[in-house]
């Protein structure tokens, strides 16, 4: 069985002066990460590894998750940044050979892949987390509708 934890990056700044790739998380974004990692721990959801886009906002999100969950530093994959749905699927097909991987990325691709793999339309808000489970032995076996969405959560807005 394979498990995939899809994570959309936390709230990032929209202030001018930053290239898109370099947009940092806001204080609210860091708080969102802390809220979601606490919920993952409470629900005994802990991936083996984290793979993230190298963009500052996704890497910062991944760093909080790895630190709070007690995991090794995230692996980066540049293909996740500005990925289309098809590109993100290719990234998933080539994930490391672990049974439970977290992938930190961007919308719209994170939401699109969640919908494609689970057959359920869900819009991933900032720092939303979705757990998909697959009756598969390797990542290449995943296909449309093959995943079961077993857990979905997002930080509540104030």
TrEMBL record:
Q: Which Gene3D superfamilies match?
A: Phosphoglycerate mutase-like
Question: Which InterPro entries does the record associate with it?
Answer: His_Pase_superF_clade-1, His_PPase_superfam
Q: Which SMART domains match?
A: PGAM
- One Pfam family name is His_Phos_1
Mind telling me which PANTHER family this protein's record contains? OS09G0287300 PROTEIN
**Name the record gives this protein:** Histidine phosphatase family protein
Origin species: Mucilaginibacter achroorhodeus
């Amino acid at each position: 069985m394979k498990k995939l934890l899809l994570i959309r990056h936390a709230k990032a700044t929209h202030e001018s002066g930053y290239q898109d790739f370099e947009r940092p998380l806001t204080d609210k974004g860091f708080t969102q990460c802390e809220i979601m990692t606490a919920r993952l721990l409470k629900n005994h959801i802990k991936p083996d590894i984290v793979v993230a886009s190298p963009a500052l906002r996704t890497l910062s999100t991944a760093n909080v998750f790895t630190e709070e969950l007690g995991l090794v530093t995230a692996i980066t994959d540049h293909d996740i940044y500005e990925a289309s749905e098809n590109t993100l699927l290719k990234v998933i097909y080539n994930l490391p050979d672990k049974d439970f991987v977290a992938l930190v990325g961007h919308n719209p691709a994170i939401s699109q892949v969640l919908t494609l793999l689970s057959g359920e339309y869900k819009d991933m808000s900032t720092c939303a987390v979705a757990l998909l489970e697959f009756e598969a032995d390797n990542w290449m076996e995943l296909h449309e509708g093959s995943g079961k969405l077993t857990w979905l959560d997002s930080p509540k807005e104030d």
